[in-house]
Structure formats: C-alpha cells, structure tokens
Amino acid sequence: MTDPLTNNLCTRLGIRVPVFGLAHRIEVAAAISRAGGLGVYAAARDGPSELEHKLRGLRQLCPDHPVGVDLLLPTGLPEHNTRESVAAALPQSHRDFVQELFARYQVPQATRGNFFSQYVRSQALFEEQVEAAVASGVEVFAAGVGTPPGVLRRARDAGQHTIALVGSVRHAQKALDAGAEILVAQGYDAGGHTGPIGTFTLVPQVVAAAQGQPVIAAGGIGTGAQVAASLALGAQGAWLGTLWLGTREHELPPALAAKLINARSEDTVITRAHSGKPCRVVRSAFSDEWERRGAPEPLEMPFQQALTGELLAAVEEHAIEPLMYEAAGQSVAWLRDIEPVANVMERLLRETRMALRSLTRYTE
Ligand SMILES: Cc1cc2nc3c(=O)[nH]c(=O)nc-3n(C[C@H](O)[C@H](O)[C@H](O)COP(=O)(O)O)c2cc1C
C-alpha cells in the first residue's frame, strides 16, 4: 500500500515521505534517507578531497535511497584567495580582539585545523567543491547561498535534481531564472544563514512565485503539526536543520548538545560574527562578545571566518564550553533529547498524520 504522505515531489525524487533534512554528518543524512525522507549532506565545510571521500561514504551508508549534497556558493568572492593574502588584510584591531578571547577564556592553541583555519572561500575553491559534488553521483544538488546558473546546469546535466534555498520572493525569482527546479523557502526562524521574512509569511509567497514548481518549507520546523502546516501553505514538504543536531548519529560534543537541549527559541540570535553574513546560532559567549560595547564590527565573508578560524578550531578541540556554539533555529525549542534519527522521523510522521487527520473535521 502506498503511503498517503507520498506526494508528487516524493515520487519525482524517489522518496517515501516529504521530510527533508540537512546535516553536516553523512551518518545523519544517510539515516534520514533510510527512514524515508531525503537526507542532504551539507558539504560547505569540506575541502575538495575530503568532500569526495565523504560523498563516497554517504553512498556506502545509503546505497538504496536517494541522498543529496549542499554547497554554499556566494557570489562576489575573489577568484583566488590564499590564507596569506586574506590574513594580511585582517585589521590589527580585530586580531587583537580575537587574541583577547583566547586569553580571557584560557583557550589553548589548536593542534588540528578545521575548514576555516585551512581554507579560505574563493571561486576557485567553490569550483573544486562543485566538481566533486557533481561527479559524486548523489541524486540531489542543493545550493544554500547563491545560485550560479552554470553550476545548476552542470548538476542537471549530471542527472541531479537541483534545489535552491531562498529567503525572499526576489531570491526565488532569481533561483528559478538560474534554472533551479525545486525551491526551499527558508524563513527568518531558521538556523544558519537567514533572511528577514518569517517562514509563515514567506512560504505562500514563494509558492505563488514558483508557479507550479515545487516548494519546500524551512525555518523553525520541529513538529509534525508544522510539517502538516507546510503542506497546507502549499509547500510539498518540510526541510529541517536544527532538529537533527539532537540525533545520536550527529555525535555532538556533550557540552554543545547540553547547550542546545537547554535552549529556548529566544536563546538563538542572528549574528554576523559566525561567517560575516547574518546567521542564526545558539547564543553563547562567542556571540555575546561580538555584541559587547567596544567590540569591533564583524568582517565580511570570507574575512570573518579567516579571522576566527583558529580560535573556533581550538574551542572545538578543547571543548571550551562558554564559547561553544552551533547554527540553530528557533526550532531548537523541540530539541529536548539525544535520540536516533529513526525515532525523530517516526515522531514527525506520526504527528504529521495526526495533524492532517484532525483537520478533516473542518471539511466534514
Ligand atoms: C547547524 C546548521 C548548519 C546549516 N548549514 C547549512 C549549510 O551548510 N547549507 C545550507 O544550505 N543550509 C544550512 N543550514 C540551514 C538549513 O538548510 C535549513 O534551512 C534550516 O536549518 C531550517 O531551519 P531549522 O534550523 O529551524 O530547521 C544550516 C542549519 C543548521 C541548523
């Protein structure tokens, strides 16, 4: 018997239920797809060779279901950026501020690098990431920030379904013009880079602008009732990020997991201190310090991440609790425990079916 939740978009993508999940762990993305949804691996923090390796791993973990890969491709970055040239452009006042944070929170130097202490975002790096993503054979290519038409065409030519995340009708139009086949309308409530329009307001406007092309709702979704509401707003699915941070497969450091479990919706803040672009994160001493009177203005992308890369690599390695944070949406209110992806999916689907059933009383 077919699942009543299997809609046109599910059929087109070869999935059973219209629940989409973005995660930085291949184990999470694979588990979402194995549970019937579509797991999308967020690859923006991988260098090109690591990305190839991760996408091979993703396929091995999920050989029988479609999966996706997501890249951030902002325009306007220089063609090539070396760490040296970017480092030379960092103002001394900003370097001093970061050194003060090292001292105030007694952060030892990192012994291992992370993406931001090793790479600098540039068009040349994006090109290598795109090459790895398009050649990987994963079924879905998502563009998180920026929709370069040439990249979307290459993904389509490689047989991938193309998705673009948008935060306004203007972005939606641009993404459609660039050839995106499916839109994720991501509202202000969302974790990660976010625009100023709330999910409830944004989704129906993007649905109207998309003129029949499928739209998925994102931002602040943590329950099945909200998945059902997304369908009622005209979307063909719901796309979640924050909720998966609380899954066993994500293996967050315990101190960070505790911070998220204890956070309420109002404990997330939008800050440019993370990447240089407005990004919703769980509040921490890191975001507070950049808000402090006398703190410097965060730099633009890619300079802010080059500035803070070593500090944040050290914070992660040495688990410096006050400074630990992660991108998180207002949906953090529903992240209350660490449990397997399959349980989260099972609950979401049960709640979705219940919400849809309860609405029929208005039509009988
Ligand atoms: C930890 C985290 C990292 C994210 N990283 C990306 C990313 O790399 N690319 C992207 O397109 N979206 C990213 N997002 C945004 C998600 O794709 C999604 O739109 C958002 O999480 C939806 O709102 P929610 O967090 O309330 O579920 C991220 C979100 C979170 C929480």
UniProtKB/TrEMBL annotation:
Gene Ontology molecular function: any one: dioxygenase activity
Origin: domain of life: Bacteria
Key words, A-Z: Dioxygenase, Flavoprotein, FMN, Oxidoreductase
Pfam family, one: NMO
Keyword hit for Membrane: no
Matching InterPro entries: Aldolase_TIM, NMO
SUPFAM superfamilies with a match to the protein in the record: Inosine monophosphate dehydrogenase (IMPDH)
Flavoprotein recorded as keyword: yes
Name of the molecule in the record: NAD(P)H-dependent flavin oxidoreductase YrpB, nitropropane dioxygenase family
